[in-house]
Amino acid sequence: PLLAADRSPRWLAGAGRFMVRMVMLSLVLSIVAVLGVGLLYGYRYITAHPYFDLQDIRVAGNHRLSNDTIMKTAKVNLGLNCLDMNVGEVKNRLDANPWVDTVIVRRELPNRLLIDVREKVPAFWIRQGDGLYFADARGRVIAPMHPGEQASLPILIVAEDLPDGPEVLSGILKKMADQQTPFTQAQTAWVKLTSAHDIEMYLDGAAGGKGLTVKLSMDRWEVQLERLKVVWRDLMRRNEFNAASIIAASGDKIWIQKRHAPEAG
Question: Do residues 101 and 95 make contact, with C-beta atoms less than 8 angstroms apart?
Fold first, then answer.
């Protein structure tokens, strides 16, 4: 009997503590539920409040793409709630445009959206099938050329299996842009990277409009270009430049092919 009497108060104390814990747990869950409902209603309130409606959308860095095209692609417009808008989705939609290289999308509360675009720059036209496409300085296709689009770009022709082709192309274009070549991109009608590992450029605006072909080895094009510049200046000095139809590098030498003299009639 004494043992039973000792156990009874302990059992009652344990049951009391359990009930207290259950009550506390119920209170905590109730508070969490109330807070959750409050946050939900609060979120719905601020994402519908006109204070956060977009009143200013600023687009920067674009040249080819119009502001209207960018906004339509991004699916944003004035009046859209700034907080309800998913900035990540806006960026993904713009990234999908073939002319967009990089884009930064940022919102400034309460009502402004900033879109900073960096576009791809076309350097060539390249043929694929029956179509003509814009390509960048590394020869990567950007987008098809549509009727009505205009640009003065050289045609690019690239042989297969030339892993160093992109580096050579971008390198020669940079030399042109930095005025380190005796010819310009505007004078260039076409550029070929051949299976013989040569780079050929036809300059239709050179040699008094008669046209000139320049050939360099892709392996040593920078060294050969410097030698070609010396020969180029020498031909100009001797007034023999217009008589040349091809200036080509072969090993450590530069050779010149002259035009055929017109036959006497």
Answer: no
